[in-house]
């Protein structure tokens, strides 16, 4: 399921997301607070959250948020990407939590951050504190994402607004990793342009690459996201462009 919301009725509201499985949820509005509990295998993208994002008893989820405070308890194998001025708090009931830098944007993000009283800096996403821990087992509770595993996240909707890039930017080592990956893509295209392969060989290579890409889409769950987005994309084409996500809900 893919669900997206950006509306006046959502602004400054307290949101509870409970028992969502295999979902992509976009709440692109300034929010007062967000509680996420008992969710599995889902990706949750939030607008600017004025007070706190609290995640409880969830597994294999990704949370992307600009928020004043963040906490998690009883969670397992989750990826958290934050823009936050405060230290993320973890209870010692968590395990395998990965923190990465805030890595997305949408056109109204800076406006929503201003409404929520959030500034791009300071950003303490990589300084989590474990409550009730001696510190000896913290590496089993959380880790900081490796730059080699880092990708930016693109919000797949057309909206109007002034934000054109990630407000806080990326830490240098993550930006360097992205640049290196982009360089590899450019090198690949250059190699393909200079290759002496025959037309049939190029077609065979193209089919092989496409097959591997489709395999990756299936194993990562991205294929489901693309399928869910077919309907809103068709609606966008029918109306020239998708100007907002107001009250958009798709199963």
Which features does this protein show?
twelve-stranded mixed sheet; cytoplasm; cytoskeleton; Pectate Lyase C-like; disordered C terminus; TBCC domain-containing protein 1; Tubulin-bd_cofactor_C_dom; 251 residues; 6 helices; alpha/beta; CARP_motif; globular; 12 strands
Describe this structure in words.
The structure is a single chain. The protein is of the alpha/beta class. It has one domain (2-250): Pectate Lyase C-like (3 Solenoid), CATH 2.160.20. Helix content is 29%, strand content 29%. It is built from 6 helices and 12 strands. It has helices spanning 109-115, 138-141, 172-194, 199-220, 222-228, 230-238, and strands at 2-5, 14-18, 24-27, 31-37, 43-56, 62-73, 76-83, 89-91, 95-101, 129-131, 142-144, 248-250. Strands 1, 2, 3, 4, 5, 6, 7, 8, 9, 10, 11 and 12 form a 12-stranded mixed beta sheet that branches. The radius of gyration is 20 Å and the shape is globular.
Topology:
Elements lengths: L1 E4 L8 E5 L5 E4 L3 E7 L5 E14 L5 E12 L2 E8 L5 E3 L3 E7 L7 H7 L13 E3 L6 H4 E3 L27 H23 L4 H22 L1 H7 L1 H9 L9 E3 L1
Parallel strand pairs: 1-3, 2-4, 3-5, 4-5, 5-6, 6-7, 6-8, 7-9, 8-10, 9-11
Antiparallel strand pairs: 1-12
């Amino acid at each position: 399921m893919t669900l997206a919301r950006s509306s006046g009725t959502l602004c400054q509201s307290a949101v509870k997301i409970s028992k969502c499985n295999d979902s992509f949820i976009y709440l692109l509005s300034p929010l007062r607070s967000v509680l996420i509990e008992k969710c599995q295998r889902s990706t949750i993208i939030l607008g600017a959250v004025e007070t706190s994002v609290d995640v409880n008893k969830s597994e294999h989820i990704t949370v992307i948020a600009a928020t004043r405070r963040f906490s998690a308890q009883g969670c397992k194998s989750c990826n958290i990407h934050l823009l936050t001025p405060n230290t993320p708090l973890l209870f010692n009931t968590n395990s395998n939590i990965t923190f990465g830098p805030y890595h997305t944007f949408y056109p109204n993000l800076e406006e929503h951050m201003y409404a929520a009283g959030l500034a791009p800096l300071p950003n303490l996403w990589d300084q989590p504190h474990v409550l009730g821990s001696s510190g000896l087992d913290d590496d089993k509770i959380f880790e900081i994402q490796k730059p080699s595993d880092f990708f930016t996240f693109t919000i797949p909707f057309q909206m109007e607004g002034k934000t054109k890039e990630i407000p806080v930017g990326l830490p240098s080592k993550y930006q360097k990793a992205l640049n290196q990956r982009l360089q590899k893509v450019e090198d690949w295209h250059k190699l393909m342009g200079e290759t002496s392969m025959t037309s049939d060989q190029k077609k065979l290579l193209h089919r092989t690459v496409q097959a591997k890409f489709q395999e990756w889409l299936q194993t990562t769950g991205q294929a489901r996201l693309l399928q869910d987005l077919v309907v809103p994309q068709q609606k966008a084409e029918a109306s020239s462009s998708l100007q907002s996500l107001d009250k958009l809900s798709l199963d």
